[in-house]
């Protein structure tokens, strides 16, 4: 049954007959692109949840977060940013295929149709805002008044909820076009090939910010993981954090059942260890270094800490969201978790946290506290 045409006065622009001439505004192309986009969004969502939980675990999960695999967070956060960036050209292409339906007449045929369109508006709004805020976050640019992390987290649920409802509502149509049509529609392969090439290109020129063997192609990634003092990037410099001059009489204070303080010379006289661990920033870059210092658990044992104790780490930094960090025992007891005094054999640069910083395996960069002044056994 042909759909009614809009009233004569409205039959212009996208509402005139034959306004959309490409053959490719059709369901099979939408289904193929929808599958790719859906896969990217779901991967991005799952890895985003992992990041959220590692950074701010709910109470019941806190003591069960794994400190392995060592490169775990680096990989999941790398995939998060890669899949998020890939979703941008995929969403663009998908929207191009289906946008003529925006001008369907009448705008709502039935209540069900109206609800479906409302759902798509919600899904699209959430997804666009989510990808936009995420992309700007990789540039460390926060030009909005709302808190990034909570907004990004809740928008993700709206987007994925909307996506699942959309898939359910379109189920029969998706099923009908799931398999390749014969004969193939001219032009479809070329379109899909170009979209795949675009996704491949944006991935190749940005993934080098976290994938070492793609580093030389990292043309558009906001960070080069090998640029920065001592060959490692810096997110927040000592000057920005107001800790440029660590006090000359700096002491590490350790509070617990048997509190004590240590000078730098005393710290250096303790057994030292070297660990190879990455800094994996939530903003999408990561880089490995060899960190030298004292095992955190040795310092905690000396203070008489119980094995399951939670540890609070305080920075010299005044204020700032990362000045105080708590560490569950699964990280604190890990033999790879160190209070680092050296990076790649050199004394820490002030921007990397001189006099001392925390480095732990499988933890987001934001929790690798720099300029440490105090440890507390809670
Ligand atoms: N005290 C303090 N520690 C901090 C930060 C900070 O702002 N203040 N930034 C964190 C973030 S977001 C990251 S990614 C790492 C980066 O470490 P780097 O600058 O040595 O590469 O430090 C973390 N430690
Ligand atoms: Mo970070």
From TrEMBL:
<dbReference type="GO" id="GO:0016020">
    <property type="term" value="C:membrane"/>
</dbReference>
<feature type="transmembrane region" description="Helical">
    <location>
        <begin position="151"/>
        <end position="169"/>
    </location>
</feature>
<keyword id="KW-0812">Transmembrane</keyword>
<keyword id="KW-0472">Membrane</keyword>
<dbReference type="GO" id="GO:0016491">
    <property type="term" value="F:oxidoreductase activity"/>
</dbReference>
<protein>
    <submittedName>
        <fullName>Oxidoreductase molybdopterin binding domain-containing protein</fullName>
    </submittedName>
</protein>
<dbReference type="InterPro" id="IPR036374">
    <property type="entry name" value="OxRdtase_Mopterin-bd_sf"/>
</dbReference>
<dbReference type="InterPro" id="IPR000572">
    <property type="entry name" value="OxRdtase_Mopterin-bd_dom"/>
</dbReference>
<keyword id="KW-1133">Transmembrane helix</keyword>
<feature type="transmembrane region" description="Helical">
    <location>
        <begin position="75"/>
        <end position="97"/>
    </location>
</feature>
<feature type="transmembrane region" description="Helical">
    <location>
        <begin position="30"/>
        <end position="55"/>
    </location>
</feature>
<dbReference type="GO" id="GO:0022904">
    <property type="term" value="P:respiratory electron transport chain"/>
</dbReference>
<dbReference type="Pfam" id="PF00174">
    <property type="entry name" value="Oxidored_molyb"/>
</dbReference>
<feature type="transmembrane region" description="Helical">
    <location>
        <begin position="118"/>
        <end position="139"/>
    </location>
</feature>
<dbReference type="InterPro" id="IPR008335">
    <property type="entry name" value="Mopterin_OxRdtase_euk"/>
</dbReference>
<feature type="domain" description="Oxidoreductase molybdopterin-binding">
    <location>
        <begin position="246"/>
        <end position="377"/>
    </location>
</feature>
<dbReference type="InterPro" id="IPR016174">
    <property type="entry name" value="Di-haem_cyt_TM"/>
</dbReference>
<feature type="transmembrane region" description="Helical">
    <location>
        <begin position="190"/>
        <end position="214"/>
    </location>
</feature>
């Amino acid at each position: 049954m042909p759909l009614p045409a809009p009233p004569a006065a409205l039959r212009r622009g996208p509402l005139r007959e034959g306004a959309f001439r490409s053959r490719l505004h059709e369901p099979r192309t939408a289904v193929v692109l929808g599958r790719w986009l859906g896969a990217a969004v779901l991967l991005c969502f799952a890895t985003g949840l992992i990041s959220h939980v590692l950074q701010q675990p709910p109470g019941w999960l806190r003591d069960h977060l794994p400190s392995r695999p060592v490169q775990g967070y680096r990989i999941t956060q790398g995939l998060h940013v890669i899949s998020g960036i890939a979703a941008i050209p995929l969403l663009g292409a998908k929207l191009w295929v289906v946008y003529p339906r925006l001008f369907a007449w009448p705008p709502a045929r039935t209540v069900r149709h109206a609800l479906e369109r409302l759902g798509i508006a919600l899904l699209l709004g959430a997804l666009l805002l989510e990808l936009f805020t995420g992309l700007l976050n990789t540039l460390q640019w926060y030009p909005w008044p709302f808190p990034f992390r909570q907004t990004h987290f809740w928008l993700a649920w709206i987007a994925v909820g909307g996506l699942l409802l959309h898939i359910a509502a379109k189920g029969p149509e998706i099923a009908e076009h799931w398999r390749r049509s014969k004969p193939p529609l001219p032009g479809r392969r070329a379109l899909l090939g170009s979209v795949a090439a675009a996704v491949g290109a944006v991935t190749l020129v940005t993934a080098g910010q976290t994938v070492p063997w793609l580093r030389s192609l990292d043309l558009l990634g906001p960070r080069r993981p090998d640029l920065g003092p001592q060959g490692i990037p810096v997110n927040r410099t000592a000057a920005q954090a107001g800790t440029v001059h660590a006090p000359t009489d700096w002491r590490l204070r350790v509070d617990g059942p048997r509190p004590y303080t240590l000078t730098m010379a005393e710290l250096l006289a303790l057994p030292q260890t070297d660990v190879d661990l990455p800094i994996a920033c939530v903003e999408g870059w990561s880089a490995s270094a060899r960190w030298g210092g004292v095992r955190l658990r040795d310092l905690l044992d000396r203070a008489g800490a119980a094995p399951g104790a939670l540890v609070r780490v305080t920075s010299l930094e005044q204020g700032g969201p990362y000045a105080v960090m708590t560490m569950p025992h699964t990280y604190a007891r890990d033999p790879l978790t160190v209070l680092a005094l050296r990076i790649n054999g050199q004394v820490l640069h002030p921007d990397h946290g001189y006099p001392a910083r925390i480095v732990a395996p499988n933890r987001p960069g934001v929790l690798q506290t720099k300029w440490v002044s105090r440890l507390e056994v809670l």
